[in-house]
Specification:
This protein is mainly alpha-helical. The protein has one domain. Helices cover 87% and strands 0% of the residues.
Length: 431
């Protein structure tokens, strides 16, 4: 999972590094796209969470017919969502990015990237749902291998299409988007082939409408809260981007690069997140509650240790990392400030994310939604605002870190209560 997710994160990091060579304005434009792209990806991830949770629990119960029915209906639902998101996105590029603080000349650059990205969105979203279904079976290797190949293709295509190397035209931001869509098309073909030919999880028989709607209800019971709270993440990201835009394009570029490094450095947490979901889901479906408790305890401890280790590494390498993204001294200083402050909250933030995954896996999506909402709007955004008013951009970064720490402590409290109840239930069933 680490290597597969590393490939996904590298899509954004590699794009950002190459676009940074085009200048501060293109890098700022790329930073403005991040909350919106993350919004769309969050919807897809929410669908994936729903598919993984439902399918894993049904696998634990041993019902193979339901597994294929749920997988097929989940992919149909993903297609419907893709069409709606693509149309809505294409119609709202200018007003949406203007609303989050992009100047007219930056919006023109943003359009170059977002139009091809929206046109190819089906190749991005549908395989994410398909790979979630594969992971629900316990196979994390195949989806990871697919993403590694796609990430390699993106690394090769990016400089060719951005800078116009050899026979390729110089497309700059548009080239970065086209490279991403082409790379994700590989995952689309591979995921559909594996689900249909190897796993036999796609049912091509004509279903009854009632059966499809029943599958959608089961998936959406998890997916809607997961997507809604995932949507809150880019919404909060947009608010924070708007907040930092008041300090100028260099600050936006620094914040955007810092969040991309954050996504890369948190890869171990997200890999554990993806592994915990099918593990907990299958064991909960099979009634193995002791294994659920053991997994939750191990995962939260691992998150704290991992987060602290990553924070030490990023603090030591903060300035060299800044040099990778930009040659502007102001941008480099801003990236270094971000990496010396925010990462020290990653351990408790990671604990919250893992507890969130556990609640989704055991069919308690509203508890997961509550944790995400608390993190963003009770802690991170208000504290970032207070920090920015007191001590500028560095104060904003400190506020984000404090918010992450607070929500991690709250999540651990709720998880301990749930695991205690689960332990009592297990002892009662044994008796």
């Amino acid at each position: 999972m680490v290597f597969g997710m590393l490939s996904v994160v590298l899509f954004n990091v590699v794009d950002t590094i190459y676009v940074g060579r085009l200048g501060t304005q293109p890098l700022a434009a790329m930073s403005f796209t991040f909350p919106v792209i993350f919004l769309v990806m969050s919807i897809a991830m929410g669908m994936g969470v729903g598919v993984t949770s439902v399918i894993a629990r049904v696998i634990g119960q041993g019902d193979r017919a339901q597994v294929s029915r749920l997988t097929t209906d989940g992919l149909i639902l993903a297609n419907v969502i893709v069409v709606l998101v693509a149309l809505g996105g294409l119609l709202t590029i200018r007003p949406l990015f203007s609303a989050i603080g992009a100047a007219p000349e930056i919006v023109a650059l943003i359009r170059q990237y977002m139009i091809p990205w929206y046109v190819g969105i089906g190749f991005i979203v549908i395989p994410m749902v398909g790979n979630s279904a594969i992971r629900a079976t316990g196979d994390t290797k195949t989806p990871s291998l697919i993403m590694i190949i796609a990430g390699g293709v993106n690394i090769i295509l990016d400089p060719l299409l951005i800078f116009g190397i050899g026979p390729f035209p110089r497309l700059e931001l548009q080239g970065a988007a086209i490279a991403t869509v082409i790379s994700y098309s590989i995952t689309f073909v591979a995921a559909i082939w594996i689900l249909s030919k190897r796993e036999h999880m796609i049912n091509l028989s004509r279903p009854r409408v009632a059966d499809v709607l029943s599958s959608w209800r089961r998936i959406l019971y998890i997916a809607v809260p997961a997507s809604a709270t995932s949507v809150l993440v880019p919404l909060a990201g947009g608010i924070l981007t708007r907040m930092v835009s008041g300090f100028g394009p260099a600050a936006v570029a620094s914040y955007g690069a810092g969040t991309r490094v954050e996504a890369l450095s948190m890869i171990g947490i997200h890999a554990l997140f993806a592994a915990v979901s099918p593990f907990v889901g299958q064991n909960f479906g099979a009634g193995n509650h002791d294994r659920v408790r053991q997994a939750a305890r191990f995962a939260t401890r691992a998150a704290v240790i991992y987060g602290f280790g990553i924070a030490l590494i990023l603090a030591a390498l903060a300035r060299p990392i800044g040099n990778v993204f930009s040659s502007n001294p102001v941008v480099i200083d801003g990236i270094a400030d971000y990496l010396r402050i925010v990462p020290f909250s990653y351990g408790l933030l990671g604990s919250m994310l893992l507890i969130n995954a556990m609640f989704n896996a055991v069919n308690l999506p509203m508890r997961s939604a509550m944790l995400i909402a608390l993190r963003l709007f009770a802690f991170a955004v208000p504290m970032a605002y207070i920090g920015s008013r007191v001590y500028g951009v560095m104060g904003m970064f400190a506020g984000i870190a404090v918010g992450n720490v607070c929500v991690g402590l709250v999540a651990i409290f709720f998880a301990r209560r749930f695991l205690s109840i689960l332990g009592t239930r297990t002892r009662r069933e044994a008796a």
